[in-house]
Amino acid sequence: MAISYPETLDEDADLSEINTTPLVDVMLVLLIIFLITIPVINTSVAVRLPRQANQLRQSQPETVLISVDAAGASYWFDARLTDQQSLRDRLRKIAGQTPQPEVHIRGDARADYEAVARVLYACQQAGITRIGFVTEPPHGD
User: Fold this and answer.
1) Spatial CB neighbours of 70, under 8 Å, sequence gap ≥ 6
2) In a domain, 93, yes or no
């Protein structure tokens, strides 16, 4: 079946109808792109998390306290640790105890993240399952 045009139409005359097919194609492609990218954008929304006071917990006598000072040095209670290996050895000893004591990490706010991360990594290698951070309550706003 062929399309027939009126015979009065001149071959050189312009058609006054707009071909909307390319417009519809472009709009569908844009719609698909937006549907794919919107969930990615929503997950990266910056939020300000609430500041809450920490739960007050009583320290058990078997709780291990590891401190990291501003210079990055580690302390087992009040005794300075000379190297990472001595920290790992002490952590392995307490990891085998039943029940396993908690490890509380007191990191100085001015300390590099790397120093605290080394303590966390040593705890992970030793198999410590209960780790907590000692913090100060927030100042009143």
Assistant:
1) 108, 110, 111
2) yes
